[in-house]
């Protein structure tokens, strides 16, 4: 199984690749995990992971700056390859981002990425928080239970999303979208690659996911 971890100079690429390789080994899945910016390799990938950290606008520009990469990503996902966005990689799935101006997103899920309103809490939202979800709500959540913790680092989050596309939330001065899914496209606002057993479970589920 060829798994492409998209390299656009943003995100914990090595950590994401190591997490995917470990998750594959734990489930005895033969996976060739490649960190790549090669559109031809992305066009052949059986699964695609898009990590990301930093500002939405910077990540969007970084992806567009590699000739043919965004086009190959869109085409392969449209063909049905399962996709997982992590942190800003998930945020790019939205219709637009509002960090440092208005930047178009992929439009794969409804909503926009807006600065979080957290009351007396501090930003960025950084640390371990409980996940809330309906057991059995999605295959990526198999093996987890509500209350399991994941590791978050962000100041912006999905706002105005569709209920049917939001598969997990957390609490930080209010409800925060933690995971989304639409067809063969899914994303985690938290860093799955830093979320220990919870993250490895999700990455393993992604490697066996048949949308």
Outline the structure in words.
By secondary structure, the protein is of the alpha/beta class. 27% of the residues lie in helices and 28% in strands. It has six helices and 13 strands. The protein has a seven-stranded mixed β-sheet. The two termini are 16 Å apart. The model has no long low-confidence stretch (mean pLDDT 95).
Which helices and strands occur, and which strands form pairs?
Blueprint: E1 2-6, H1 13-26, E2 32-36, H2 39-44, E3 47-50, H3 56-65, H4 69-78, E4 83-86, H5 88-91, E5 96-97, E6 103-104, E7 112-115, E8 125-130, E9 149-154, E10 156-159, E11 166-171, E12 175-182, E13 185-188, H6 196-208
Parallel strand pairs: 1-2, 1-3, 3-4, 4-13, 5-7
Antiparallel strand pairs: 5-6, 7-10, 8-9, 11-12, 12-13
Number of helices: 6
Calculate the terminal CA-CA distance, rounded to whole Å.
16 Å
Low-pLDDT parts are: none
The best one-word shape is: globular
Number of E strands: 13
Main-sheet strand order equals 2-1-3-4-13-12-11
What percentage of residues falls in helices of 4 or more residues?
Answer: 25-40%
- Tell me the Rg in angstroms: 16 Å
Q: Overall pLDDT, averaged?
A: 95
N-to-C series of helices and strands: EHEHEHHEHEEEEEEEEEH
Biggest β-sheet: count, sense, barrel? 7 strands, mixed
Into which percentage range does the β-strand content fall?
25-35%
SS content category: alpha/beta
């Amino acid at each position: 199984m060829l798994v492409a971890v998209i390299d656009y100079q943003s995100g914990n690429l090595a950590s994401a690749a190591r997490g995917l390789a470990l998750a594959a080994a734990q489930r005895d899945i033969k996976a060739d995990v490649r960190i790549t910016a090669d559109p031809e390799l992305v066009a052949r990938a059986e699964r695609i992971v898009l990590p990301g950290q930093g500002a939405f606008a910077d990540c969007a520009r970084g992806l567009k700056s590699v000739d043919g990469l965004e086009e190959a990503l869109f085409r392969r996902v449209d063909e049905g390859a399962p996709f997982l966005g992590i942190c800003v990689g998930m945020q790019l799935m939205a219709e637009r981002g509002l960090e440092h101006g208005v930047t178009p997103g992929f439009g794969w899920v409804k909503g926009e990425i807006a600065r979080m309103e957290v009351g007396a809490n501090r930003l960025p939202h950084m640390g371990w928080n409980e996940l809330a979800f309906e057991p059995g709500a999605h295959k990526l959540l198999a093996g987890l239970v509500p209350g399991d913790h994941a590791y978050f680092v962000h100041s912006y989050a999905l706002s105005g999303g569709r209920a049917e596309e939001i598969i997990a939330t957390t609490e930080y001065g209010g409800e925060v979208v933690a995971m989304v899914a639409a067809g063969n496209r899914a994303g985690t606002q938290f860093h799955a690659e830093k979320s220990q057993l919870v993250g490895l479970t999700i990455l393993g589920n992604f490697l066996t996911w048949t949308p």
